[in-house]
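Q: What structure does this chain adopt?
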Amino acid sequence: MTDLGMQFFGPTEPATDAGYDDPPQRKGFFTDTSICIGCKACEVACKEWNAVPEDGMELSGNSYDNTGALGASTWRHVAFIEQTKPAPAPAAVSLGMPTVALPGDQAGPDSRVPFEWLMESDVCKHCTHAACLDVCPTGALFRTEFGSVVVQNDICNGCGYCVPACPYGVIERRDGPAGDEAVGLAQKCTLCYDRIGDGMEPACAKACPTNSIQFGDLDELRERAQGRVEMLVESGVATAQLYGHDPADGVGGTGAFFLLLDKPEVYGLPPDPVVTTKDLPKMWKTAGLASVALLAGVVAVFVGERPR
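A:
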């Protein structure tokens, strides 16, 4: 769909679509949740480099999560998903000797509830078709030559149109602390535009100790991710899957995609996101036709009116 001089849906090169004549390779993130240890180094590095204010020093009560979700002051969010799983009861072996029970073992192994953690460092998806950018009336949101989407604070008027436009609920207006220059303005991850422009990797990827967050050329990352999924499936992790890597999905693929170990909904991600401005050209056409029909009706009334 290429009405209005740009493409609103389907596979495309976003930088070229935005008007760059000879852009570099598209950059992005591949986040492999299978090796995320939940250390939050990415959250801290992001805040330090981008001067993002703290957003809560108390635990939320949802495992070790203290930020809850992505937002204006949370550009990287580490989710902790606790899942219970059945534990096989160990076979009893009697040696005819006294034993010492561990705390909690008195009720027997069947009473214990073992669990596992799924951990995921979430971030703005830098969509191929970014609805936040499409609806911005001031041009504060723009597409970079690397394919990422960035907010310009000095142009943002705080209207908030971008907030409901995002199918992932990523972007928000900052509501504090008082005195912060970005209060009232839309805020989100910039893919460390200032760093990658100087040949450095984003702060979060640089700080990740397990290489769970990988940065590079998007095509190469997709290849690497596919190989990783195949390896995990072969090793018995049947639920391993990629999320956001497919250029044919509802947002044209994302610049930040993930390897998940369960369904997207488990991580709080929409299972089938669609860019909210997909039907924008059709809407403008419909509005135009309605306007023409209304004008024709008004003209017909006056032309057809008999003189008295």
